[in-house]
Design brief:
By secondary structure, the chain is mainly β. The chain has one domain. The chain has 1 helix and 6 strands. The strands form 2 sheets. Strands 1-5-4 form a 3-stranded mixed β-sheet, with no helix packed on it. A 3-stranded antiparallel β-sheet has the order 2-6-3, with no helix packed on it. The longest helix has 4 residues.
């Protein structure tokens, strides 16, 4: 069994794989900070190279063992994920063959409510 250290999201560590977004760190709201409703325009933009369509898919997550049992390749598209109600761990690594080299994978903790974009 190969063990991978879980990393906290930081620009220096995650930059080779993509970017991340913390909605709680959105800067000033449009029209000021007063009131119970604050509007933060266009903080998370989804750019897709091959299409004008954006699709959001629902994902139900349950706690499970911290094992990498499956991985997938997004060779020509970005993937944006997040907004979860709890912290989640996710892995990234170079594209490989049918048996990926887990020693080259990185695991990150995505805090609840944050978003990540995989290049």
């Amino acid at each position: 069994m190969h063990h991978i250290l879980v990393k906290e999201l930081a620009e220096s560590a995650f930059a080779p794989f993509g970017t991340y977004f913390n909605p709680a760190d959105s800067g000033p709201a449009l029209m000021g900070e007063a009131g119970p409703v604050r509007f933060y325009p266009d903080r998370l933009l989804c750019l897709f190279e091959n299409s004008n369509y954006v699709a959001l898919s629902q994902l139900a997550l349950e706690p499970r063992a911290l094992n990498i049992t499956a991985t997938e390749i997004h060779a020509h598209t970005e993937e944006v994920f997040g907004g979860f109600t709890k912290d989640v761990l996710f892995h990234v690594g170079p594209a490989g063959n049918a048996t990926p080299d887990l020693s080259r994978f990185k695991v990150f903790r995505l805090p609840a409510g944050w978003w990540a974009r995989r290049k």
